[in-house]
Design goal:
The chain is an alpha/beta fold and 193 residues long. It has one domain (3-190). Helices cover 32% and strands 24% of the residues. The chain contains six helices and eleven strands. Helix 1 (3-20) crosses helix 2 and helix 2 packs across helix 3. It is globular. The model is unreliable at 10-35 (pLDDT under 50).
Amino acid sequence: MGALEKRAGRRLTRALAVQAMLVAVPLLTVPTWAGGEPALEYEIKATFLYKFGPFVNWPQGDLSASDSPFRLCIVGDDEVASLSSEATQNQQVLGHPVKIVHLDAVTHDSGCDELYTAGSPAQTIADGLAAVKGTPTLTVTDSEHEPDAHGIIQFVIDRERVRFDVDTAAAAANGISISSKLLQLAHNVSPRP
């Protein structure tokens, strides 16, 4: 486990432990410490990428082979993308090792279980989301890129905290569903379940 993942993991674990005791406070809300450590925001987002996995219900048969990796595809080269390999090193999702796959562009048959797209010269965020629409892929975007192109989960900053919105209709269009536990922690859910 890399130093970056350990540091972000310890901060995340401390924040989760404190917030778990406070029912009214969203569990996955972690302060960005405005003016303090802007890189921490990106470390937290990179760590969240694999932490979302256990809260997703994939169609029967997906991720069933015990030796198959959880394919986390990354399109683009923003701060979250560049930290993703270190943040997910030696991690698992639902018992599957996380395999980071960096792509210039994603296609319908890329075989991604999860896609984080920040856009690239070869593919906009909207085009990447359209490419995997209808496949059992959890899509994650960041509101600081192409604000009108939303994945199933979209990172947002609210009151200097890393939060996320969830689009349940987009999840259903991809044949997956999001656990009610994660929906309760979301900043916004659209449409409402």
